[in-house]
Amino acid sequence: MARKKRKDEEKAEEYEWVPPEFDEEAFLKKDIVGTKALMYTTVVALIFGGLSAAISDYAGHIVGIVMYLVGLLVMNYTFKYARIKVEDIDKKTSIGNIALYMLLALGVWIFFINEPFI
């Protein structure tokens, strides 16, 4: 038995992808705010890492840990004094800044409590 040829009566609709509008000004503004927050976080982490090391030498490591955590609170509440709007920062960027603070301040603290700096 011979096969019948199918007629392509219904052609699939062609889908054409249209890229969304790109707001370059909003993108740059968001990027600049994120960069400012990153630089501010770095400075605060360096300062409070050094303060934690200095305080832990004299008052003990528990007080150094408290100073380390106070630095995290200071960083989050003083963004407005550095002219950084917290509303403009993404949640992912905020989590990244917190992680950066915790690791960098801890690294500075450990660096300064070791032998050459005591």
Explain the layout of strands and helices.
Elements: H1 24-59, H2 61-77, H3 91-113
Can you put this structure into words, describing what you see?
The protein has 118 residues and is mostly helical. The protein has one domain. The chain contains three helices and no strands. It starts with 23 loop residues before the first helix and ends in a 5-residue tail after the last helix.
Summarize the structure.
The protein has 118 residues and is an all-alpha fold. Helix content is 64%, strand content 0%.
Strand and helix order: HHH
What gap, in angstroms, lies between the N and C termini?
A: 95 Å
**Strand portion, in percent?**
under 5%
What best-fitting shape do the alpha-carbon axes yield?
Answer: elongated
Low-confidence stretches: none
Instruction: Count structural domains.
Output: 1
Structural class: mainly alpha
* SS field, number of helical segments: 3
Per DSSP E runs of 2 or more residues, the count of β-strands stands at 0
The residue fraction in helices comes out at 55-70%
Largest sheet: none
Evaluate the radius of gyration. Answer: 27 Å
Estimate the mean pLDDT confidence.
88
